[in-house]
Amino acid sequence: MCARSGCLGLAFLVAATSCPHGAAAARASRPALSDRIRILYDAPKKADYRGIYDDMRRQRVLERIGAIVGLARLPARLTYRLKECAGELNAWYAPENRSVTLCYELIESVYKAAPKTKSPAGVTRQEALVGPVAQILMHESGHALFDLLDIPVLGREEDAADQVAAFALLQLGGEEARTVVNGSAYFFATNGKDEPLDQGAFADSHGLSWQRFYNLACLAYGSDKKAFGYIVAKGHLPKDRAEGCGVEYDQVAFAFDRLIVPHLRVKPGPGERLRHAFQRAARGR
């Protein structure tokens, strides 16, 4: 039986299309975690979070993200933790104890923002649940990689973490990548509708939600114009921006190749081999 969260278990990581199959696939596949990855699921005190806790553990969400990040030769142990945060809707990487924390409160906000069935733009509830959780965890993992691997960042670190997250998740390919892109874009757009455009918003270290929406859409389109052509066709990405998205994606891919790939435990070749390494790690193969 699916948890109250609506199978918020990152079905894309186990190549599932429905809740029962997702649970079965999760039990069948076990991501090979590096000994430098530690996983903690704190049992929630609030009853409303119990479904999220059960489903995240059953689908081994933190383990699957950890398996991707664990492809790198980490010099120290990195902890992934799901916990209650005293009402705070947040997720963060803490360099002092080398940990990525995801709050139940933030996941619940994703659950509440998701459409009941499908949004007017065609984003399904499953996509709206899966995408943001994957993006958030990989974004914070980007911060962790910058710190642990001593990777130089030119520009705002928050933007760079978004780029690492987008690039890594796009390597999943096919329906899985589209699920992440559609769901994450929906979450950014939903947040953007209510986001104040005051001086404080422009001073924040994070980009505005609509900026993050268009940056993600551009990288997706630039990665595969055929698979993500609907983003432009439906008017979600201006054609003027779309023209340069191939260059934008190549720029991120080049930086990833120069700055992160040398730290990987596996030595993939160009193109598809890198994608296959990420897919195998995420699916526990």
TrEMBL record:
Keywords of this protein's UniProt record, alphabetized?
Answer: Signal
Q: Which Pfam families did the record assign?
A: DUF4344
What is the residue range of the signal peptide feature? 1-23
Q: Which InterPro entries does UniProt cross-reference here? A: DUF4344
Domain of life, per UniProt, equals Bacteria
Name this protein carries in UniProt: Metallopeptidase
Q: Which organism is it from?
A: Methylobacterium planeticum
List the lineage, top down.
Bacteria, Pseudomonadati, Pseudomonadota, Alphaproteobacteria, Hyphomicrobiales
